[in-house]
Design a protein that fits this description.
Length: 104
């Protein structure tokens, strides 16, 4: 996973965190998403307080963007959901964006 927060322009009140999932790496897509969320929320991804299950089935997320049976990658498509008030978007090419909640 490679991720970094992007600095918001002066007119935008919040930063969008971006990460990229490596489909050839050891982590599943759902694990990469959990680690991206952990970076944004400051929660430890191993202590059980951060879970995707309330928003999405992690196995279904992994299967959705897994390569096709013939080995060709999936192209196009995205999925968005909310975890810990953070808006998460995952694309077929492995990009993960996490938008923090709006602070009032």
């Amino acid at each position: 996973m490679h991720g970094h927060p992007t600095s918001p322009p002066p007119s935008q009140p919040r930063a969008i965190y971006r990460a990229v999932h490596d489909p050839d790496g050891p982590a599943t897509l759902s694990t990469t998403v959990v680690h991206a969320l952990a970076d944004c929320t400051g929660l430890d991804p191993t202590d059980g307080r951060l879970s995707l299950y309330d928003a999405i089935d992690p196995d279904a997320l992994d299967a959705l963007f897994r390569p096709k049976y013939d080995g060709t990658p999936r192209t196009g498509g995205h999925l968005s959901f909310v975890v810990e008030d953070h808006y998460v978007t995952v694309t077929a090419d492995g990009e993960i964006t996490v938008e923090p909640p709006v602070r009032r």
